[in-house]
Specification:
The protein is an alpha/beta fold. The protein has helices spanning 18-25, 48-52, 56-67, 81-84, 86-100, 107-118, 131-143, 159-162, 167-178, 198-205, 212-223, 236-240; strands at residues 5-12, 32-39, 73-76, 104-106, 122-126, 147-152, 184-187, 209-211. 45% of the residues lie in helices and 17% in strands.
Length: 244
Amino acid sequence: MTKRVLLGMLTPSSNTVLEPVTSAMVAGLPEVSAHFGRFRVTEIALSDSALAQFDDTAILAAAELLAHAKVDVIAWNGTSSGWLGFEADERLCRRITEATGIPATTSMLALNEILARTGVSRLGLVTPYTDDVQARIVANYAGLGHACAGERHLGLRDNFSFSEVTADQLSAMAREVAAAGPQALAVVCTNLRAAPLVEALEAELGLPVYDTIATVVWKSLAIAGVDPRRVTGWGRLFREIGPA
């Protein structure tokens, strides 16, 4: 029997997109399966109550339950460090590994690695978030040397509502951002149904589109010893960027 590869994913409680999309991405890898643990996230904002949702205590409790499934990696399939600061994800990964003995990653740390490896200095951003959250994300990426070259956001804060943004809306936002001339486009939110659009958008726009559900699957596979280039039909990320 081929050794199973088990990917553990930490999931916002109100997210309905990342689980089916993640499972679809790995469906062509017969030894790989994804397993999910939830913790409470219902609102994306900069209020104290919204920020408190990402306290490490709740996330670590969910990670410890995932560890019972003997997963090969535990990934935070979410984008909160985009506005909290990337050090929040670095700290979370350290704490998950200290608590469980399992390597950890996140959607945003994976995206940052991809941008660094591909030399992106002009980044386009598509998100569903509010003005102030988007401004934090733009500033944090500028701090890493990825200047914002075009952005669109929807001004939404209810996390469930992100899953109801239509494919036509997402495609229109991507086209508008691409017109500003970025080297790559990042879709930052794991409750947007953008990943299934990536192949068509890349062919149309002529630039890579990095969806944050895809980025964490890419990195999780690499950590677990599976070449992410075996994933087909989900964009240039998987075709072009192998494990480090």
